[in-house]
Amino acid sequence: PAAGAFAFRKAGAARRRRGGAAQGRQRWRSDGRALQKLPVHMGLVVTEEEPSYADMASLVVWCMAVGISYVSVYDHNGIFKRNNSRLMDEILKQQQELLGLDCSKYTIEFANQDKADQVLNCQSTLKVLSPEDGKADIVKAAQNFCQLVAQQQRTHTDLDVNVLDNLLSSTNGFPDPDLVLKFGPVDSTLGFLPWHIRLTEIISLPSHLNISYEDFFSALHHYAACEQRWGK
């Protein structure tokens, strides 16, 4: 869908939190329950050149608050992944600011490949990705399959969608994304998990900078109302 389908508002951080954290928590919980369907795994893809840690952290915390179990954060320059600890610190800060005393109910696991030991008791799971994750994993899967053929455990005719799915490991137990929110003017996901999004609903928004909760929820509402035909 075109980004113009949503009334994008430059809300700013102060206005975004206006009304108090308690009121926000109640609204987010009820919003999540009210939706006809909620993505299990959401991808947040930034195609802009200068990503904002604070705005991305707000998006992640909103995902947690409405009940989304898996979140992937991606930018095509790998900035978030290279500065993973900075993003994590901002998310923990936003948890406290936006969720307040309820913060303990929304704990999150950081399933980052480079820092697998940074795990908290989890209700939501976050993975920070960069372009090499999707492409490198497909190459590795192809190499593994060729090795099986060389060892006569497989034949080349065995390769199909299900076999490749089993060989791929980039999501480390993540389901394929149900919904991707793509931020920025580029009409491309720029390498975000190229295999895993073949059936994913993709919604474009003009920017993640100063994004409001209303814009986020409008995208969720659009996803809940859409009819997915799974390629048929």
From TrEMBL:
Keywords: Angiogenesis, Developmental protein, Differentiation, Endoplasmic reticulum, Glycoprotein, Lipid metabolism, Magnesium, Membrane, Receptor, Transferase, Transmembrane, Transmembrane helix. Its main location: endoplasmic reticulum. The gene is Nus1. Coiled coil: none annotated. SUPFAM superfamilies: Undecaprenyl diphosphate synthase (SSF64005). The keyword Magnesium applies. Pathway: Protein modification; protein glycosylation; Lipid metabolism. It is a multi-pass membrane protein. It catalyses: n isopentenyl diphosphate + (2E,6E)-farnesyl diphosphate = a di-trans,poly-cis-polyprenyl diphosphate + n diphosphate. One of its GO terms (molecular function) is ditrans,polycis-polyprenyl diphosphate synthase [(2E,6E)-farnesyl diphosphate specific] activity. Its EC number is 2.5.1.87. One of its GO terms (biological process) is cell differentiation. This is Dehydrodolichyl diphosphate synthase complex subunit NUS1. With DHDDS, forms the dehydrodolichyl diphosphate synthase (DDS) complex, an essential component of the dolichol monophosphate (Dol-P) biosynthetic machinery. Both subunits contribute to enzymatic activity, i.e. condensation of multiple copies of isopentenyl pyrophosphate (IPP) to farnesyl pyrophosphate (FPP) to produce dehydrodolichyl diphosphate (Dedol-PP), a precursor of dolichol phosphate which is utilized as a sugar carrier in protein glycosylation in the endoplasmic reticulum (ER). Synthesizes long-chain polyprenols, mostly of C95 and C100 chain length.
